[in-house]
Amino acid sequence: MAVARTIGDWIADGDEAHQWSLENLAHSLNVICNVGFGGRKIDLAEALGVGKSTISPWLNAKNSPTLPHLVNIANLANTS
């Protein structure tokens, strides 16, 4: 329930500075990959429980993770 509330608040937030986009998500994922995993995409993918072919489009702003994967990314980055 807490995750659902947080996501609902996030979606309802009208602050354009924090607006969701594939580009913003890709940037954040690349920062997580570089800082937390030394740029090793395969290690980030493994930490998220996906394959490299799944994470690559996320890192290149070509595709969006599913909601459960977004929650895993937020948990990995210690954010909400």
Total beta-strand segments: 0
Mean pLDDT: 83
Low-confidence stretches: none
What's the tally of helices? 5
**Gyration radius, rounded:** 13 Å
Principal-axes geometry comes out as globular
Q: What share of residues are in beta strands?
A: under 5%
- List SSEs in N-to-C order: HHHHH
**Largest sheet features:** none
Work out the helicity level.
55-70%
What class would the helix/strand composition place it in?
Answer: mainly alpha
Question: What keyword list fits this structure?
Answer:
mainly alpha, 66% helix, 80 residues, single chain, 5 helices
List the helices and strands and how they pair.
Blueprint: H1 2-12, H2 22-37, H3 41-48, H4 52-59, H5 67-76
Short précis:
It is built from five helices and no strands.
